Amino acid sequence: MSESPDAHSLLSASSQLNLMEIDAIDDKEFDIPQVDTPPTLESILNEPEDEDEQFVLEDTCLLNTENMDAHSCDTSSLASSDSGDPAHLKRKKRTVDLNATVHGSVLRHSLLKGISAQIVSAADKVDAGLPTAITVSGVIAVGTSHGLALVFDANQALRLCLGTTATGAEYGAVSALSINHDCSRLLCGFAKGQITMWDLANGKLLRTITDAHPPGTAILHVKFTDDPTLAVCNDSGGSVFELAFRRVMGMRSCDSRCLFSGSKGEVCCIEPLHTPPDLRDHPITHYSLLAMGSLTKILVIGLKPSLKVWMTFPYGKSDPSSVPQLAWQFVPVQKTVNPILAFCRGDTVHFLLVKKEETGTIHVIKQRQLHLSCDIISLSWINSRTLVLVDSHEKLQVVDRPSQEVLETLDLDQVQLVYNSRHFKSLATGGNVSQALALVGEKACYQSVSSYAGQIVYLGTKSAHIMTLRNWRERVDCLLKQERFVEALSLAWSFHEGTAKAVLGLFGDPVKRKGVVADKMVEILFQFAERSLKKCPEQGKIQVMEQHFQDVVPVLVDYCLLLQRIDLLFNQLYGRLVENVVAKGVFLESLESYIIAERLGHLTTPVMRDLLAHYHGNGMMDSLENCIVHLDVTSLDIQQVVQVCWENQLYDAMIYVFNSGMNDYITPMEKLFAVIGPPLREGRTLTDEQVVMGNKLLVYISCCLAGRAYPLGDIPEDLVAQVKNQVFEFLIRLHSADSEEEEEVFPFVRTLLHFDTREFLNVLALVSYINSQETQHDTQTFEDFKNDKQALEYQQRIVDILLKVMVDNPDFTPSQVGGLFTFLARQLAKPDNTLFVNRKLFDQVLEFLCSPDDDSRHTERQQVLLELLQVGGVVQFDEGRLLALAEKAEFYQICEFLYEKKHLYDRIIDCYLRDPLRKEEIFSYIHNLLSMPGYSSEEKKTVWDKTLQHIQELVTLDPSKSADLVACHFSEEVRPIISQLQDDQLLFEFLGWLLEPREGHHPGAALTLEPDLHELQVGLLCRFAPQKLQSFLQTSQQYRLEEAIQVTEQYHHSEATAYLLERKGDAHGAFTVLLKTLKEKLALLTPESEGAGGGRRVEEEEEEEEEEGEPTLRRVEDSLSDIIALCHRSSQNLNQQQREVLWFPLLEAMMAPQKLLKGPGAKHTSEALKELTMKVLNSMSSFIPLPAIIQRILQDPVYGKGKLAEIQGLILGMLETFNYEQTLLETTTSLLNHDLHWSLAHLRAAVTRGLHPRQDHCNICLQQYKRRQDSAEEIIIFSCGHLYHCQCLQQKDCGRGLTSERQQGWSCYKCSSNQGGRGGASGEPGRGRSTSLAQTRVTSVHRDGGAEAHGKKVFIEATLDPQQEQSWDQLRCLYRGPSRLAILSELSHCHSNEKAGLLNPAQPGAGSIFHSENFQLKLSPPPLVEE
Question: Which residues pair with 188 in a beta bridge?
Answer without folding.
Answer: 177, 196
